[in-house]
Amino acid sequence: MDQIRQKSNMTKRSRKPKGEKSKDRHHVCLAYLPDDVLYAILLKLDIQSLGRVCSTCRRLQSLAETDFVWTRHGGRRTLIQESGRSKQTECSYKEKVRLSYNWENAVFQNEVITRNQVKQMPWLQCDEAGLWVSSDQHIKYFSTNRHRGSKHLHTLRGVKHDITHFVLQDETVVAGCSDGSIIRWNKTSETPTFTHKVHDSHVHKVDARENLVLSSSTDNTVRLMDIDQAAENRVVKVFEVEDRVWSVGVSPDGRWCVGGTAASTEQKPPLIVWDLARLTKVCNLGTDHKKGAGVFDLKFESPNLLLTGGYDTILRLWDMRTFTCVSEWEEPFDYAIYCIQSDNNMTMFTGTARSSMTRLWDKRKTKPVSLYHPPARKRDSPVYSLAYDTSHLFVALDLSIHRLDFSMRKT
Question: Is the dihedral of CA 15, 17, 19, 25 positive or negative?
Fold first, then answer.
């Protein structure tokens, strides 16, 4: 009994007043654990739980926001990679996963960059600082600051005929016109530095590599021009085609030139490949396609991969090593594909011939991921051109140019 009473007294003496913390007790905090242990825990969490961890303390936030933690979640989503604007709009992997939710669910805010008084067929190109837009006889340059909106900075002038298509090459802009001429400007100069009449009629598309310029036309030819040569020797080669040529492209390594035709008969191929080193025809692509399967737009994703789209409503991926079609995606509404864009990875965009409709595609899926309708006054316009970065999509309609901002956050 004496031992029991002694223990009871010791227990009473060890008790602390209510509300006073014991100095002998060791408190364990999650932030005190080593980084490798915390990473093992973070890799088990879902997206919602990771977001909550980021709101606890600075150390856990810095660990939870690393690309290493978010890579597992990004593999399941359609991430928009950079293509063309790169370093200015780079963002973390966590931010790309957040943005992918908005892209997949068509959560965006619309801004009208510019409006046209009459219907046009504008073309768009992005660089690291802003957006270039063709309009009548001009090419306008807009800054596209995320917080300040779009602002017109300057205009490339000095052309008497409509500009049908243009490309950006380093610090220059190369364009084709409706009278068959090719024009070049420096980006910082408003007047042309080069003008030369190449075709007898309307130029549809142009592409450029270093000093070489390729152009396609309704005069049934694709012409290769060296702009550094004297006027009488500038046209290096004329590739004769027995059909109108809607599109043209040069591979990134400068080996192949591909022309997309109207394919007006079953005997006329929709795609023709030329070897630029030998200046000879290599082969035809798509000879088994149905009549009228012309190619409106094409894009080289790499020296070996070519993406094409056109009248037959099918987006195709070609392997230039074997000259075969390796993948196909069909437009669900049976609309012709007017323009295409790609991040050279898994993401693709298509602009259709009707309803002002743009689709987002993932190469790993057979059906489109999402579709977007800019809130225009009329929804009967084709989408003539597309440009994008990780958080914005630029859409060219006949009467307006739109910027769809997918960087919105939940309120």
Answer: negative
Q: What is the pTM of this model?
A: 0.86
- pLDDT tens, position by position, 91-127: 788 888 889 999 999 999 999 999 988 999 999 999 8
Helices in 140-238 by DSSP H: which ranges? none
Q: What's the full length of the chain, in residues?
A: 411
What is the per-residue pLDDT for 19? Answer: 47
Q: Which residues pair with 222 in a beta bridge?
A: 216, 239
State the Cα–Cα distance between residues 281 and 249, nearest whole angstrom.
14
The residue whose two tokens read 């190109």 is 125
In sequence order, which residues have a C-beta less than 8 Å from that of residue 59 and are 6 or more positions away?
A: 31
Q: Where are the beta strands (DSSP E) in 293-408?
A: 295-302, 305-310, 314-319, 324-330, 337-342, 347-352, 358-362, 370-372, 385-388, 392-396, 400-405
The one-character DSSP state at 28 is P
Check residue 327 and give its pLDDT: 96
Q: Which amino acid is at 380?
A: D
Closest CA to 174 of 221, 125, 222, 218: 125
Q: In what order do the strands lie in the sheet with 181-186?
A: 163-169, 172-177, 181-186, 194-197
- Measured distance between the N- and C-terminal CA atoms of the chain, rounded to whole angstroms: 68
To which H or E segment does residue 124 belong?
Answer: strand 124-126
For helices 67-74 and 35-42, the axis angle rounded to 10 degrees is: 20
